[in-house]
Amino acid sequence: MKELLKHLPEVASAILPITGIVLFLHAFVAPMDGESLARFLGGALFVSVGLLLFLQGVKTGLLPMGETVGAELPRFGSVALILGAALILGIVVTMAEPDVRVLAHQVGIVSSGAIGSGKLVLVVSLGVGACVCAAVLRIILGVPIAWFFAIGYLLIIALSFVTPDQFVPVAFDAGGVTTGPVTVPFILALGIGIASVLGGRSAISDGFGLIGIASIGPVIGIMILGLVSG
């Protein structure tokens, strides 16, 4: 319990400001009925409890597991194994990301099923997995990260001119939702773990950047989906 309560200030700093703003708007701008206000306060309480449990889970489970996996994979001496594991882990972790599910659900509703939620989740997950794999290869080869960003965003800009209009905004939102509470801790820990055991690699300069690279994949993936569907 003591370990759990250590995260209380962090949770309070995340929840209290938005709760205060909503209550201010309720009092002076847009009053809510009693039921809506009670549901909002109850939801804020549930979110607070959930964040406490989630942060404790990240600290005790996701981060150590990601670093351990990242540190142990290079010891097998097989680049193919490392890249294959990075690909699979990127796909699986993204499929478990709540933000991706929310985006897929909302897109499915707004498009009246024209853009299937299952297809969107799969494409986003494949995009993240492919880019995590590429980011791990960058660490192994020591390629400057700027090259990855330059090539990735030039490709995104080029695709944005030929992708159907309804897919372009969805594609950019897909890149944003991959930086969620499940994906970020695990992929960051994976990169730091790999960089820490490779000779001549720095956990700071080489271990970070995976999230930035990973967020490019879903954008490109959804744009390609738009081209194929169109």
Structural class: mainly alpha
Uncertain ranges: none
**If you average the pLDDT, what whole number results?**
84
Determine the number of helices (DSSP H or I, runs of at least 4 residues). 11
The major pleated sheet works out as: none
Shape: globular
What proportion of the residues form beta strands (DSSP E)?
under 5%
Please report the total strand number as a whole number. 0
**What is the helical fraction, as a range of percent?**
over 70%
Over all CA atoms, what is the radius of gyration?
A: 20 Å
Span of the ends, CA to CA: 54 Å
Question: Could you write a compact summary of the structure shown?
Answer:
This protein is 78% helix and 0% strand. By secondary structure, it is an all-alpha fold.
Description:
The protein is mainly α. Helix content is 78%, strand content 0%. It contains 11 helices and no strands. Helix 4 (79-95) runs antiparallel to helix 6, helix 6 packs across helix 11 and helix 8 (168-177) packs antiparallel against helix 11. The longest helix has 39 residues, at 34-72.
List keywords for this structure.
230 residues, mainly alpha, 11 helices
Write the layout of secondary structure elements.
Elements: H1 2-5, H2 8-28, H3 34-72, H4 79-95, H5 98-110, H6 117-141, H7 145-160, H8 168-177, H9 183-197, H10 210-214, H11 216-229
Helix pairs in contact: 2-3, 3-9, 4-6, 4-9, 5-6, 5-8, 6-9, 6-11, 7-11, 8-11
